[in-house]
Amino acid sequence: MSLDRPVxxxxxxxxxxxxxxxxxxEDVVDGQPVKHEQVNEFGDTSPQLSWSGAPEGTKSFxxxxxxxxxxxxSGFWHWVLVDVPADVTSLAVGAGRVGGELPGNAFHxxxxxxxxxxxxxxxxxxxxxxxxxxxxxxxxxxSLGVDAAASPAVVGFNLAFKTLGRAIIRGTYQx
Length: 175
What we know:
By secondary structure, the chain is mainly beta. It has 1 helix and 10 strands, in the order βββββββββαβ. The relative contact order is 0.27.
C-alpha cells in the first residue's frame, strides 16, 4: 500500500487569526529536523522551549505538539500540556516526561499514542517528511476548563474560544 498523498496544509492557518508571539528552543530549529532525543524510538524527550511577548491578558498557557502529516484525517497529537501558569516562560528539556514535575496546576492529557506526556516523533517508515508543530497557546483564563480525561480534540475545541495568541516553532522528521 502506498502512502503517497498531498502535503497537508498548515493547520494553524485554518483557525481564526490570533496574535503571535515568540517561541525559541535549544532543541528545535524552525523547519529543520528534530534531534534524535525528540523521536519516539530514541527517547520520547520533549524539547526545551522558551517564549516571550504573550498578549496582554494571558492567564495561562497550553503547550502542544501536533503532526498534521500523519496518514489519517485528524493528524496526530504528540503532546498536550494544559494550564501552565502565566508566569512560566519556559520548559526544560524533558518536561513532558510522564511523572515529571510540572509547574503550578499544569497537567497532561493523553496523546494520540494513548500515553500521558510527550510522545516523540514517529512517522511511518518511508513516508514523506512530517512536520511537528510545537505551539505555545496563550490562554485568557487561568484554566482551560478541561481535566486530564479530555481528548486533544476537546482541548483544541476549548482553545478555539480562549486563545489570545500562539507561538509556533516547527520541527521535521522522516523515518
